[in-house]
Amino acid sequence: MMGTATQGSLVEADVDLVEYYYEKGFSDGLPVVPPTQEKVDDVVQVLGGDPEHVECKVAPRWGELTREVLAINMVMAGCKASYAPVVRAAILALTDAAFNLNGVQATTHVASPLIVVNGPITRELDMNGGANAFGSGNRANATIGRAVRLIMLNVGGAWPGDLDKSTLGHPGKYTYCVAENEAQSPFAPYHVEHGYKPAESTVFAIAAEAPHSVTNHVSNDPEGILDTICSAMSTIASNSAVLGGHMAVVLGLEHAKTIAQHGWSRADIRNYIFMNHGNRFIDLAYGHRYGKVYNRNLPKWYKREDDTRIPIIHSPDNIHLFVMGGEAGRFSAVIPGWGHMSTPVLKPIDLDTVAAGPDCSSGTCAL
Questions:
Q1: Would you state the pLDDT for residue 5?
Q2: Are 344 and 102 contacting, i.e. CB atoms less than 8 angstroms apart?
Q3: 196-241 pLDDT, tens per residue?
Q4: What percent of the chain is modeled with pLDDT above 70?
Q5: End-to-end CA distance of the chain
Q6: Residue 176 and residue 77: Cα distance in Å, rounded?
Q7: pTM of the predicted model, to two decimals?
Q8: In terms of Cα–Cα distance, which of 44, 52, 38 is closest to 1?
Q9: How many H helices and E strands in the chain?
Q10: 291 by DSSP, 3-state: which?
Q11: DSSP code string of 85-128
Q12: Which residue in 55, 172, 305, 332 could disulfide with 112, CB within 3.0 to 4.6 Å?
């Protein structure tokens, strides 16, 4: 006997449950794991019990995410019960008012929440921040990200063509969850840079495009590598070019080690990128051939002169720097955000802290 994904009711033992969940419309397009009561109970127990406790409301339908419903979607995604604190922290990050999940879910843009996990929990769950970090092959990465998406679909109601109006989408709308490669990185982890202790674990969420590859097999100094990253960032094609906002920069391991050998810090890297990327205003205005352009989305203090350099992001603090990848390959990546309409959120992963934290059921709690 199996519980359904929405009502906790039971279906007969001879029902093909994979097909049943397809018919009910609870799948992301891939087969789901039937959520037996035993598996659901195991997840609820990790979350602190009380299956009817509402963790948050999920836009745009503003469905209530109870612990039982969270557990059902986790099981359907293929998660182990031990992944529950990460999934919950990720959902609380997405439903923080600053993230604007309502807009992210409903936009015509390709944006999808990218989840980056830091701290000891990545090792406990055997998450991948190394070779093929954004690719397939790791259960924790794949199923944590998939559970987040299933909750966005089944509780948030953002089904493609209905409340999700994305014109194209991207593969991260199946699953988009990675870990930073802390073990091999020459720099302090992202969450430590932002005030957390190394022994603490966090999730970072940003509304993001797919990774854009940055190739540089030539440079043996920081400037050369970072100039290539600046080139990849400096485009008039992303939302960030005209709307500002945030961007993730992922240094591959070889690039990160080369930069670190020259004594550069994380702050040095972010400031160099900020000072050396951007586009000419006249290019953003398409030469004014469609009429005079002012662009009210840009800060008022930017000059609107033809050769004025317009940064993609408006502060070094809006560059979110991570180190990931395997030992071989001089590749990095830039990941543009959605624009100023969404602010990335960093949340702690701590069962006691999260369970005792502010009431997020309204969708307006803040970090």
A1: 42
A2: no
A3: 999 999 999 999 999 999 999 999 999 999 999 999 999 999 999 9
A4: 93
A5: 40
A6: 13
A7: 0.92
A8: 38
A9: 14, 14
A10: strand
A11: HHHHHHHHHHTSGGG-HHHHHH-SS--EEEEEEESTHHHHTT--
A12: 172
Amino acid at 227: D
CA distance 147 to 177: 10
What confidence tens digit (pLDDT) does each residue in 104-123 have?
999 999 999 999 999 999 99
Average pLDDT, the chain: 93
Angle between the N-to-C axes of helices 222-233 and 253-261, in degrees from 0 to 180, rounded to the nearest 10: 130
Q: In DSSP terms, which residues pair with 208 in a beta bridge?
A: 112, 337
Collapsed DSSP state (helix, strand, coil) of residue 341: coil
**What residues does each domain of the chain span?**
1-209+342-357, 212-336
Burial 90-115 (b: 16+ CB within 10 A, else e): bbbbbbbeebbbbbbbbbebbbbbbb
CB of 70 within 8 A of CB of 88? yes
Distance between CA 114 and CA 337 in Å, rounded? 10
Packing angle of the helix pair 37-47, 67-77 (nearest 10 deg): 120
